[in-house]
Amino acid sequence: MDKKSQIIVSGFKSVKDTKPINVNLLRWLEGKPSLNSLVDAIRAEPDKGKRSELKKKLPAITPSGTFVNRRADQLIKHSGYIALDFDNIEPEKAKKKLVNIVNIFYAGISASGRGVWALIPIYNTEQHNRHFDQLKADFAALGLEVDSACRDVCRLRFYSYDPNPVFNLEAKIYTKLAPEPIRQTVRHYNNVNNDTALEKLITLIEGRKIDITAQYSDWFNIGAALANSYGENGRSFFHRISQYHEKYDPAQTDYIYNKALKGNYSKINAETIFYISKQYGVLLKSINY
């Protein structure tokens, strides 16, 4: 049996669902007609906010693998694929470029109808981030902008359909890697190992399913603190903290984090996260405020 027909990824009933089920990737790509009317409604909706609300009704997958929970550090098995979003280009124009790239396994119109997403097989699943960084650079050279948020191995992909997708079961495995990243020292605050303390804090938030992002200013400052302390590696932390807001939207969360990464918020540090969490009744006894 063809190994490609047995690619399993994690699936979720909606963006708020935290319990994954196994989904066959090829069957997912083939589509589910019963969901197409909802996708059509999303594509016909001119208001971005309303589109986002409708998208929350769609099931989703993590194309890069199976997970215990939807967290980068909870990866069970990598699928061997990276999913990419192409921004700022008309979908059919993007597909005409992508169809000629030997590494494209699949490319189709996104749920919103305003972009294209694609799947690419990679050589070394343990080097997911370096493969992504090089892919982003290669596509930029072709005039195609890749959404940086796709670097996250546990990034969600909403259900969509395309009657005329790019589909190549014999896609060539992408082998290029970006240079090794320069190691940066993560700042530590209050004489506490920040990595360990933050993980404990987020685990506490997840255990209690409490929202500490009710105020926009708190939400943004948490994102800025993570961006300043962890760079791109803080994105999954931001999603884990943001997921309990009643209007949680992965795309909007990525937008805010991208904004935080690009801004100069050096005065906002990891201590901010612990301070904000304390205001919502979530605190670690080992942290001094």
Question: How is this structure best described in words?
Answer:
It is a single chain. With 289 residues, the chain is an alpha+beta fold. The protein has helices at 25-30, 33-44, 48-55, 91-98, 128-141, 194-208, 216-230, 235-242, 250-262, 270-279; strands at 8-12, 21-24, 60-62, 65-67, 75-78, 81-87, 106-109, 116-121, 145-146, 157-158, 166-167. The chain contains ten helices and eleven strands. 38% of the residues lie in helices and 15% in strands. The protein has a five-stranded antiparallel beta sheet, covered by helices on one side. A four-stranded antiparallel beta sheet has the order 2-1-3-10. Strand 4 (65-67) and strand 5 (75-78) form a beta hairpin.
What secondary-structure arrangement, pairings included, does this model have?
Layout: E1 8-12, E2 21-24, H1 25-30, H2 33-44, H3 48-55, E3 60-62, E4 65-67, E5 75-78, E6 81-87, H4 91-98, E7 106-109, E8 116-121, H5 128-141, E9 145-146, E10 157-158, E11 166-167, H6 194-208, H7 216-230, H8 235-242, H9 250-262, H10 270-279
Antiparallel strand pairs: 1-2, 1-3, 3-10, 4-5, 6-8, 6-9, 7-8, 7-11
Helix pairs in contact: 2-3, 7-8, 7-9, 7-10, 8-9
